[in-house]
Write a structure and sequence with these properties.
Length: about 150
């Protein structure tokens, strides 16, 4: 069970970026953390900003606010889940890989363009599939199903 499910006492780690599919990943991560009686680490990372003249303190404050907004309703729905918020200025893949060491599960959303068979995953989730140090769940956007 331990190798299959990741570290037995580790956290569930979820990558958050504010997109709709990220919201679905957060929902899945809370559900998994609750069912496993595991803590949840919610991580937001960024590096895709211009470097000249950036007020990094303000950017970090905005990211912290975004993360708090994305977690608020879920923390109320799952009061049993202890949440740690992590905001880092780093490449998302590198930050998520570091946070996933010793984790039970790593959860990310995928914004892959889906039109071609090898393009079903975005670049972040594709890199994590190859290098994640624990089990990985890639949450895909829900598609509307016709009745």
């Amino acid at each position: 069970d331990g190798a299959q499910d990741g570290a037995q006492d580790g956290a569930v780690v979820v990558g958050v970026d504010g997109s709709p599919v990220s919201e679905q990943a957060v929902a899945f991560a809370f559900e998994q953390a609750s069912s496993r009686a595991a803590p949840l680490t919610a991580l937001i990372a960024w590096t895709d900003l211009p470097t000249g003249g950036v007020d990094w303190a303000r950017v970090e404050q905005e990211r912290r606010r975004l993360l708090a907004e994305r977690l608020a309703g879920w923390q109320e729905k799952y009061p049993d889940v202890r949440v740690t918020r992590v905001v880092v200025r780093d490449r998302p893949v590198r930050a998520l890989l570091a946070a996933a060491r010793g984790a039970r599960l790593l959860v990310v959303g995928s914004r892959g363009a889906g039109g071609f068979q090898g393009m079903l995953l975005g670049s972040t989730s594709q890199a994590l599939v190859s290098h994640a140090p624990c089990p990985l769940a890639v949450v895909r956007p829900r598609e509307e199903v016709a009745p």
